[in-house]
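To close the chapter, one final illustration. This time we ask the reader to focus less on the individual chains and more on the assembly as a whole: which components sit near each other, and how the overall shape emerges from the parts.
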Amino acid sequence: MPAPLPLHLAVALEGAGWHPSAWRDPRARADELLTPAYWTDLVREAETGTLDFVTIEDSLGIQTTSPDGPDERLDQVRGRLDAVLVAARVAPLTRGVGVVPVATVTHTEPFHVSKAIATLDYVSGGRAGWQVRVSPRQWEAELFGRRTVPAIQGTDLDAPEAAAVLEDLFDEAADHVEVVRRLWDSWEDDAEIRDVATGRFVDRDKLHYIDFEGRWFSVRGPSIVPRPPQGQPLVTALAHRSVAYRLAAKAVDVVFVTAHDAEDAGRIVAEVRREQAAAGREDELLHVFGDLVVFLADDEHSAAERKAHLDALSDADFTSDAPVFVGTPAALADRLEDLRWAGLTGFRLRPGTLPHDLEAITRGLVPELRRRGIFRESYDASTLRGRLGLERPANRYAATTGGAR
Amino acid sequence: MSQPSQKSQTSKPRKQIHLAAHFPGVNNTTVWSDPRSGSHIEFDSFLRFAQTAERAKFDFLFLAEGLRLREQGGQIYDLDVVGRPDTFTILAALAAVTERLGLAGTINSTFNEPYEVARQFASLDHLSGGRAAWNVVTSWDAFTGENFRRGGYLAQEDRYERAKLFMRTAWELFDSWRGDEIVADKENGVFLADPGAGTFERHDAQFDIRGRFDVPRSPQGRPVIFQAGDSDEGREFAAATADAIFSRHATLEAGQAFYTDVKGRLTKYGRTPEQLLILPAATFVLADTDGEAREYAHVVRRQQVSGQTAIRFLEQLWNRDLSEYDPDGPLPDVDPVVGENTIARGRASVRMYRDPLQTAREWRELAEAKKLSIRELMIEVTGRQSFVGSPTTVADEIDDLVQRDASDGFILVPHITPDGLDDFADKVVPILQERGVFRTDYAGTTLRDHLGLAPLEVPLPARRR
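The assembled structure is written out below.
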């Protein structure tokens, strides 16, 4: 296997951090989680480490430990802000780092998501992305009251009934992403002509109806927003199982996976690549990022102490869908190097506590990776796609003759 | 030049004027052909516009929303500015580059859901430190619906009903947090004081929803509520629910009539006249002298209404293809097509022509009396320039209209973006400030403060476990 390319690095920002007791860390800004200053400081910190991008976690329903609905816990963070708006709020105050908010597809309109992310791309000067989230929760559906989602929580997700429900939700998500992407292309780049001689502001032949007809919705288009700076902002998704790998292989630019070791990573990457070929995208660059939750300190003992202390506060050993790393930035660098050989093209680190573990990444891990010659010294491309080696895609409608009629 | 009439009202304290600015986007106000006209989509345009408005101590900036490109004769309308960015996203970004300016956005209640919109507005209010405002609109048609899952499923009369229930539902969500639930006591491990914070339940003709709202109470409690709408229903809705109403009546008589009518409706809802501001949209043309301003205003009108644009305007009333007619010639001798307007779609103004035959008769009489061509007539009947003159004249007129209760202030719509507000900020605002009728600095931090609205009383959520 050839030596991997320089690695890509992102962080996933969530509340006070990913540990449920993170807000009790001495440095946590627990009473500022709903303030713009808090989010601006975090994203700027990520930028000082020249990280590729930050994702901003979100869901439609309130945080809970129960699969069936809100819990009544008082000892964990409850309440948050809309991630797309948080991303928009920090974008003008940063210059380099990509901003990738979560937006749920199951209950939102693709037209709204498309124009919001396109606008985020304008606001950030080509640094916008979107993390697609599917909601399989009936209690979230009840916030909208438009549909029911058959209960699959707590059951074996591979059982036929549950698998069929998930299959539908992910098919719908694929359609949603397709609509969003078509809307981004529905204006050709040079559609705005401002031709004083003919009095035309736009060339309507360069505006296109998308005419999407699917099982869940039909959308006519064109978008209300001209094609965004990146052409197609970055689309990402978190995937744990085959049904999600299929969506990722078909529809996204970066998939976050939760490989627990190099062998696991190799198996997942192979599956994603197979699905990618099946979707006819084998020639396209699809990033597979490994997700890890990290608890970092200058020495291994302190890192373990930190996590143990948080675990004691929440009366439970912290576990996650993603592997949990506890140790020094140098040991984390070793781990990432090792995992890369399995074919992962980058990593998304979930800081256990904020801002502590984020700073350990930007001020500890990043210099270590630079010493090893596998991480950038500065931002070398102005757009998020460019940084990830993704070209600005051609407009799917530009080659067609005739415009919107 | 009009004369200020404050002298007759010396016994009454001078009203403070409210000023706001609208970044127009899709419309034919913006003279995009002017070399000074910049991008209507790049963030830098919004940033410059907002910072000018804030430098001038305006109450707020206002953005409309677009959900479908307009069409005429089955084709996308290409003569005006086409396209605009997403309202929420731009407002959140503007919160980063302004400190006090209110941030108002139009969000429709037909193709959105209350949980989602409440979440976005509460988030915007947090992210701006209490500067969010929501202009609630209802009337979007099946044409627009083709871009949404819901499609065009609502009849006209149901849309107001949905809007009312939508608002009530959104309020219930905003009020589901009291504001003191987050204690974040690290020592004792208590983040939240109330296990039921955010709990809501709503079952009515439009919504059947329940759960826990996940955005804690925002600085203003709820966004400031704006409303546009001139119908009886619209006025009543505003009187019952809104903090400010956008009107189209920028002249003295029409403004006073509207003002009296709407403010008179407040008592039955237990509200006082100060609780609902009347803010007409107004354009302006400034020059060093009144004469120069009038000349320039004429140039601007001819830029706004080209020959092609005049024919397209006329088609909107006639509801038929008139492309064969000469814009410099007389009105068509055929009558408008009565019935559903099918020629122009996605255009709010079309719905204003309630009786096309009658309007056509009036236009014919006007054209004959003044010997106007199609283009000249369109310039006349679509005229929206409210204030034309030297800075002193314009300041006089604005002050006069407000002191005489034709409005509480104005939402200014420049014809050049993003820099068309600059002259107003630099030349008119200082005159109003010298007279003591407009603030020289913000007194408070929230939009409610700027508008002189009392802070909301914090209600006790209905459902607490």
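Chain B has 14 helices and 16 strands. Chain B touches chain A through 77 residues (CB under 8 Å). With these observations in hand, you are ready for the problems at the end of the chapter.
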